[in-house]
Amino acid sequence: MMSISQVRRRSRRLPVVAVTAAVAALALNACSSPSVGSNAVSDEITIADHAIPQSLDPMSSASYETTQLTFLWGGYLTNYADGKDSGSPQLARSVTASPDGLTWTVKLRSGLKFSDGSALTSKDVVASLDRILSTPNVAGDNFIGPVMSSIKKVTAPDGHTVSLAMSRPYPGLPAALSTPEMVILPASGIAKGDSFWKHPVSAGRFKLDTLDTTNGKFTLSANPNYYDTAPRRIKKINFVAVTDAATRLAQLKSGQVDYADNIPGNLLSQVKSPLTLDTAKWNGGQMGLSVNFNDPVAGDKRVRQAISLAVNRQQIAASALGGERVGRPLYGIPWNQDNDSPNAKATKRDIGAAKAKLKGTKCENGCTIPLVTVTDSAWQVPLVAQVVQQQLKAIGIRLEIENTPFTQVGDRLKQGDWGLFTRWIGYYENTRTYLGGYIYGDPTSGNNANFWGTLPTTPDMPGLKALSDRLKTASSSAAPGLVEKINEEYAKELPSIPLTTLSYVGVSRFPGNVIHSVGASYLVLP
Fold it and tell me: How would you label 50-62 residue by residue, b for 16+ Cβ within 10 Å and e otherwise?
């Protein structure tokens, strides 16, 4: 079962907005629209985020809004990007592994500077990585645990070289170095502790100019000391928190903002040309039902299998998420982590087969299962819970939805008197190394809390563990076959019930070549 810290860092916090389509329509129609038709790009843009960052330190907050800001002002050794560019050099000139994979060498570009003009050397990289390594229980962190538990020591042989000694090979290290927590900070700033985060400095594309952390207003400008000296088309960013989704969309239409993030599915019908929809799949992103295996009802795999047969995933995607651009039906482990499959084979809803599975269980003649659902995080969560609740009535299962605030869900799950938990998850590191460690939770072998929300994997599935270990270092050609076998093994116990994939949704006044999101938090800007 997840601890409160695991729950906090497991899910990127996306506050839910309960707005009806009718109210949204009124809000949008009340706005003037001429400025929407003019999508000429100036050198200044305004981004409306959905929440006020609770911290600017990505090691203190795994929230979406913190991550989005960090990716703007933070400098990284490697690039966060799609496909073959993932993990390509940024501040690093090269990142190479020894033949046995137990030593990685990072060569820095020459002449690197932080945004305040001070020199960036290998000493700062060591301090930045040591800051993470020294964080209590970092090996058990759901996001960076797999890579950090693989690093034994970080040293600086000279001012432009960093050496990482590994406890085991981690082929995905270059991509892992681009994830939010890996931001490179000045050693002198780290030494200041909390005071540094009042106005942090790094070596990213932009620098923080003004910060109003109380109201969630920030201004950023192009970093004149960025290693890439090519002129930036966007020179200034106004970052504002607008917590109501209908208001964000209305401000976008009126021209008050240029980009509105995290727009829920029930407002997507209001997105009309020339506004453009920006959907970015979460790496490994999915909605599903985690299981309390100590619960006498949900702990019975026959009940889990019946639920899986009785849900209509296409309907969930259409009615709860706003269509398959936001979430597609998911029938198994969605690897590769791009959600591109090969997924488990699609199965149609089969009420007869579901009822047959319930014979001899506590649900044969009807039952009630407590479903813990977070109300103030990802907007998709309560909507999906409501649709599933209606669907399971067809087999006599009554889901008793227990709405729980995000800050309380960890303590609530530890109490143990629940059956299912509406789970959402996505991450940034898109490597098979990470995936293999996430499919099966086994801290003794360097794996984290598994993808399905329990630690370690319950019930014990040695076959699944062996396959997930093989996936860590599998070649691209071997991975699809392994994924198919993993899904076959997974279906034997169904340790969690997958429902749909999960994507980030934003709306812009400009086309995608001007601004778009990668991996749900990294904004690509000209």
Answer: bbbbeebbbbebb
Where in 98-213 does DSSP place strands (E)? Answer: 103-108, 151-158, 161-166, 206-212
Give me the amino acid identity at 85.
Answer: D
Q: What is the pLDDT of residues 58-112, one digit of tens each?
A: 998 878 889 999 999 999 999 987 666 778 899 999 999 999 999 999 999 999 9
Category of 322 on φ-ψ map: left (φ > 0), alpha (ψ -120 to 50) or beta:
left
For 442, phi then psi, to 5°, come to -150, 90
Residue type, 338: D
Rg of the chain taking only CA atoms, in angstroms: 23
Encode 278-303: b = buried (16+ Cβ within 10 Å), e = exposed: bbbbbbbbbbbbbbbbebebbbbbbb
pTM higher than 0.90 for the full model? no
Lowest-pLDDT range of 48-62, 191-205, 434-448: 434-448
What lies within 8 Å, CB to CB, of 476 at 6+ separation is none
Cβ within 8 Å of residue 471, ≥6 positions away: 335, 432, 435, 436, 439, 479, 482, 483, 486
Residue 501, phi-psi category: left (phi > 0), alpha (psi -120 to 50), beta (remainder): beta
Mean pLDDT, rounded, for 19-29: 32
Rounded Cα distance, 187 and 64, in Å: 26
What does each C-alpha distance from 179 to 5, 10, 477 come to in angstroms? 19, 14, 25
Residue 453, burial from CB neighbour count under 10 angstroms (0-12, 13-18, 19+): buried
d(CA 435, CA 51): 29
Place of tokens 């000694």: 165
Single-letter amino acid, residue 411: D
Query: H or E element: which one contains 413?
Result: helix 409-415
* Cα 134 to Cα 97: distance, rounded to the nearest angstrom: 23
Cα diameter, the chain: 72
Are 310 and 521 in contact, with CB atoms under 8 Å apart?
A: no
How many CB atoms sit inside 10 A of residue 328's CB? 21
Contact of 254 with 33, CB cutoff 8 Å: yes
* Residue pLDDT, tens place only, 247-296: 999 999 999 999 999 888 888 889 999 999 998 877 667 788 988 888 99
Q: Is the pLDDT at 338 greater than 70, yes or no?
A: no
Amino acid letter, residue 46: T
The pLDDT mean for the chain works out to: 83
Written as one letter, the residue type at 363 is C
Contact 172, 112 (CB under 8 A): no
